[in-house]
Write a sequence for this structure.
């Protein structure tokens, strides 16, 4: 009798523990749009200014800080002259990390116990975060747009680390080294609100780590559509200035 | 010099047609018929800066659709516009991306070659025949946002 009771207690306890564990894992699944919306001005006019870099931009070391400032001035002057400078997305190249998380078009998160997949509508980009795996050595990672990401749960927060982002894949047009590390802390701040606190560490280029937060709102009615950038009519001159090809295909 | 004169004359045509379109609309009481299409979640056109286009000039041209390219990163509508000398100029008009247009009510079949249209646009600053499409008015009076 008591042995039977003991077994029942054990089963009940393990069920309770199992329930507590699953309840403790937040569900990030769904399609998310930025909230508050930093791109709201563009709904009024396509000529709105891009939102400024979060937290005033990265604090770069010299000589990178001066070069970055000079590039921003060149960019502004080119815009004024009607010949904007090309950036990666003007060339239909993926945004990469961490720009993909800026969700200029909404992003969809697919969550399993082994990985989290971010599907961005813009340019049909895919980013994978492997859960509870050891980070490989930098040398074993093929440098890419999104790099290589591993994540683990710390209570209600998913801590994600990323390495191996190619040097020519730039956030807010700022330079970085291949040794750059990105740490993200994802958590639900309300049932349909997500935040991603992002810290970029790169001692070779940054005077101090660059930390900022992107907020998102879940949008259950939004269906991500295909976005294959196969008709780029932007043409680039030797200085990287953009013009439009007006002849039909 | 000749090119400058041609451009000036084209500009006058633009302004003239913009005014005449407005007058016609006011006369017909159609101004209120401006699109009832609603943007649900309308993402920014992330693809490039719009500095190629002249935000200070909003002009209207009338012509016939010659081609529709329903593609990313943008949909392009090509419109043949009579040049007033018996010929025509083909304008390349940049619209939003297909996913944004679909969500605001456009369909790939909304415009097709041969359709008579009146197009409000922000012209290219380099003088090439093209621009950023603002609205297009179809022959049935519907006006849709680009």
């Amino acid at each position: 009798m008591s042995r039977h009771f003991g077994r029942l207690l054990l089963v009940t306890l393990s069920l309770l523990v199992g329930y507590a564990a699953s309840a403790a894992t937040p569900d990030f699944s769904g399609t998310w749009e930025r909230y508050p919306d930093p791109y709201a001005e563009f709904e009024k006019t396509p000529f709105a200014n891009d939102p400024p870099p979060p937290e005033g931009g990265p604090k770069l070391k010299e000589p990178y800080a001066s070069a970055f400032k000079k590039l921003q001035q060149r960019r502004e002057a080119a815009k004024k002259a009607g010949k904007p400078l090309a950036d990666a997305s003007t060339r239909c190249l993926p945004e990469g990390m961490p720009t993909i998380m800026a969700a200029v078009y909404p992003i969809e998160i697919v969550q399993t116990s082994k990985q989290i997949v971010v599907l961005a509508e813009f340019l049909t980009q895919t980013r994978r975060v492997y859960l509870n795996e050891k980070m490989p050595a930098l040398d074993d990672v093929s440098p890419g747009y999104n790099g290589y990401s591993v994540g683990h749960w710390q209570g209600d927060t998913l801590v994600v680390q990323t390495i191996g982002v190619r040097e020519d894949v730039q956030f807010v047009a700022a330079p970085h080294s291949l040794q750059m590390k990105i740490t993200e802390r994802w958590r639900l701040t309300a049932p349909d609100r997500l935040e991603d606190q992002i810290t970029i560490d790169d001692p070779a280029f940054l005077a101090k780590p660059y930390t900022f937060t992107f907020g998102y709102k879940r949008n259950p009615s939004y269906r991500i559509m295909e976005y294959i950038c196969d008709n780029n009519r932007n043409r680039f001159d030797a200085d990287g200035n953009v013009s439009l090809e007006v002849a039909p295909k | 010099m000749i090119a400058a004169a041609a451009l000036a004359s084209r500009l006058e045509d633009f302004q003239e047609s913009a005014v005449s379109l407005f007058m016609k609309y006011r006369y017909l009481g159609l101004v209120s018929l401006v699109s009832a299409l609603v943007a649900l979640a309308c993402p920014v056109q992330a693809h490039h800066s719009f500095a190629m286009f002249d935000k200070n000039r909003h002009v209207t041209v009338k012509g016939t659709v010659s081609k529709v390219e329903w593609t990313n990163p943008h949909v392009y509508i090509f419109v043949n516009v009579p040049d007033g000398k018996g010929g025509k100029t083909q304008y390349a008009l940049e619209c939003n991306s297909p996913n944004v247009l679909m969500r605001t009510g456009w369909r790939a079949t909304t415009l097709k070659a041969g359709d008579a249209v009146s197009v409000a646009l922000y012209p290219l600053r380099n003088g090439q025949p093209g621009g950023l499409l603002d609205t297009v008015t179809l022959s049935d009076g519907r006006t849709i946002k680009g």
Notes: Chain A has one domain: 30-244.
